[in-house]
Amino acid sequence: MTRSLENRIGIVTGAAKGMGREICLALAGEGVHLALAAREAEPLLALGGEIEAVGRRALVQPTDVTDEAAVSALVERTLATFGGRIDILVNGAGVTGPIETPVWEIKSEDWDHVLAVNLRGTFLPTKHVLPTMIAQRYGKIINISGTSGLRGYKNRAAYSSSKWALRGFTRTVALEVGPYNVNVNALHPGIVAGDRMERLCREKARARGSSPERIHDEYVEEMALRRVTTARDIANAVVFLASDASRNMTGQSMTVDGGWDV
């Protein structure tokens, strides 16, 4: 750890589990004080304790990122708690939506839910932190997208559409806020080891009459490095994008997928 982000103030949505949790721990390890946002309070409280154990402050704020009043309250409480600054926003909240489902079988309510969480849930935190970042003429926004936003993804139309939309959102906002020294980038994880990967493999196996192990192996065989991305791999990339090492990157798509999408 280089403590390259000492005493910066960050908000992470989707912080409770998986990638979000690992991102928070990595940022805290580099010196960031954090506001932790997710729907469930219990895992956030546990994570807050871990962050405080390494000497960083942690604000726990259960938040539905699709609810503008809740997002506004998250930002206002962060400002009140940490002295009026917000330096880093990681938009990590997201859902996978229907798996192995052709577009003509997707329920309208499932489509709306995926777009609401993945897209509206990125727009609202960005909207509410930007006045502060613009005023202080500094900010780093990292949108967690996915390789589904780089290529077509058969039988995942809702999820893929949301991730493609995040690319356009990232590039457009980068143009709007660049003059204020605010960087906006998208991070595209490939399939990441953990509960979501296991669910994906189970659902694909069920639909194909295969086994989860075989589906897992098929993914790995398509990766240039022949290894699955970990949550820590993603967290390391977030630290880079949040640091001044990436000061002249904005509007970009950074992919961490073991060489799956090459």
Describe this structure in words.
This protein has a 7-stranded parallel beta sheet, with helices on both faces. The protein has 8 helices and 7 strands. It has helices at residues 18-29, 41-53, 68-81, 108-136, 157-177, 195-208, 212-221, 231-242, and strands at 9-13, 33-37, 58-60, 88-91, 139-144, 182-189, 253-256. Helix 1 crosses helix 8 (231-242) and helix 4 runs parallel beside helix 5. The model has no long low-confidence stretch (mean pLDDT 95). With 262 residues, the chain is an alpha/beta fold. The protein has 2 domains: 9-191 and 230-256, 3-Layer(aba) Sandwich (Rossmann fold); 193-228, no CATH class.
Instruction: State the separation between the terminal residues, measured CA to CA.
Output: 30 Å
**Compute the gyration radius: what is it?**
18 Å
Roughly what fraction of the amino acids lie in strands? Answer: 5-15%
Pairing-aware structural class of the strands and helices?
alpha/beta
The appropriate CATH architecture of the largest domain is 3-Layer(aba) Sandwich
The average pLDDT is 95
* Count of alpha and pi helical runs: 8
CATH class category of the largest domain: Alpha Beta
Oligomeric description of these chains: single chain
Based on Cα principal axes, name the global outline.
Answer: globular
CATH superfamily of the largest domain: NAD(P)-binding Rossmann-like Domain
Task: Count the beta strands.
Answer: 7
CATH topology of the largest domain: Rossmann fold
